[in-house]
Design goal:
The protein has about 400 residues and is an all-alpha fold. The protein is about 70% helix and about 0% strand.
């Protein structure tokens, strides 16, 4: 059984699991008997003396502000720079034409939306203790923030699926810039249908709470302000639990298979290519390990706390733990930008090219005209350099494309 077949089977299983979990989520609350999942996981509108933890709340506020700036500016830059370079420079940045980059842009959009919707409300909790005063506005803020959060989770796992299919394609015999032409799931315009699927299943994940069947959205305990609040009998919506566990399992499997395949293919490399292959294997393995570790470190502590598994809760320790784990979890919406920036030289070059072009336009507009003092000789050398860079970038793109995950 080949790795490409395993990845194809896993991809179908993952895509099928998303609507299945959505159906279970919306059917489970109506099943007869006690559908209660975890009483310890419930959130209630308990008034806590925040003044007792003023220093902790100040630390949370500073952390929120840093992530808001990084996540906001970083993802905003990504949404401007990458499409600009894709359209203007085309195959000069051929790696950015891959559909996996569309999913990365989708992830950046979700991260930016979370920063804009969530963090202003979070910071209001510190200053006003209650966040948004209008109940209806608080309801919609809680719904939108949680919807975007699950869009983010699902997109991260979907990127892993897309990258695994790309790098283990039996038709391409490895990573290829033409893979999207025959990919039956992510190829062509189908990647946009995948993005729509992500939004649909994410909304279905929180739908029982949106409808008030298993809980409702409103004012909650700090540091969230506007969040899900559950009835006294406990939180009944198992959708978030199933969705997060499903994404963790499949994402880990996808990346694990990619790494195993790299080590298996080592036997097919000989001579002078061995050194380059070993460097590529180390680079890719490191990148995938960083992605998995960052996802688990940011998400699992808050996940375990929310569902009542760890640590043991008292009123005081619950408040402290929630603030600390939430502060770690929020970095999930700021760290993705750094990971892709640090692990892809082509994305870094795209940022530089975008900033360079914008600076030129700014200078041109400020001067009112563009100075054209290039001689024929200088134009010749500029054109020669550009052709050399295009050839260099094309070769670099082929090596880099499996690192976009």
């Amino acid at each position: 059984m080949s790795f490409s077949f395993v990845i194809s089977l896993l991809s179908v299983m993952y895509l099928a699991s998303l609507p299945i979990i959505a159906i279970i989520t919306n059917v489970y609350p109506y099943l007869p008997g006690d559908a209660k999942y975890s009483e310890q996981g419930k959130a209630t509108n308990v008034t806590i003396a925040e003044t007792k933890h003023e220093g902790l709340m100040l630390g949370v506020l500073i952390n929120q502000f840093i992530i808001f700036i990084i996540g906001g500016l970083g993802n905003f830059l990504t949404l401007l720079a990458i499409p600009y370079v894709r359209l203007k420079y085309g195959m000069q940045f051929s790696i950015l034409q891959l559909n996996s980059v569309v999913l990365i842009l989708h992830l950046s959009m979700a991260d930016l939306m979370y920063a804009l919707i969530g963090f202003p409300n979070f910071m209001m909790v510190y200053f006003f203790r209650e966040g948004l005063n209008d109940d209806r506005l608080c309801y919609y803020a809680g719904v939108l923030r949680n919807l975007v959060a699950y869009v983010d989770f699902n997109t991260i796992a979907m990127i892993a699926c897309c990258v695994a299919k790309h790098n283990l394609c039996s038709t391409c015999k490895g990573a290829s810039l033409s893979h999207d032409k025959h990919d039956k799931i992510f190829g062509g315009k189908k990647v946009y249908l995948v993005c729509i699927l992500i939004w649909v299943v994410s909304f279905l994940t929180i739908l029982p709470d949106v409808m008030g069947v298993t809980g409702t959205y409103g004012r909650s305990t700090p540091p969230y302000g506007c969040d899900i609040t559950c009835p006294e009998e406990g939180c009944l919506n198992i959708g978030p639990f199933l969705s997060i566990m499903n994404n963790i399992v499949f994402m880990s499997i996808f990346y694990f298979v990619i790494i195993i395949n790299l080590y298996v293919k080592r036997g097919e490399v000989y001579g002078a290519d061995v050194s380059n292959y070993m460097k590529m294997r180390k680079s890719i393995s490191t990148t995938l390990a960083i992605l998995i570790i960052a996802y688990l470190v940011c998400l699992l502590p808050s996940f375990a706390f929310t569902w009542g598994y760890w640590p043991a809760k008292t009123e005081d320790s619950s408040y402290i733990s929630k603030a600390i784990f939430a502060s770690i979890y929020w970095w999930l919406y700021g760290v993705n930008f750094f990971i892709y920036l640090a692990t892809s030289s082509r994305i870094r070059e795209a940022y530089r090219q975008f900033m360079k072009d914008m600076w030129k336009k700014l200078l041109t507009n400020s001067d009112g005209h563009q100075n054209d003092n290039c001689t024929d000789t200088s134009a010749f050398w500029i054109g020669l350099r550009q052709r050399h860079m295009e050839q260099h970038n094309l070769h670099g793109d082929i090596r880099e494309n499996i690192r976009l995950s």
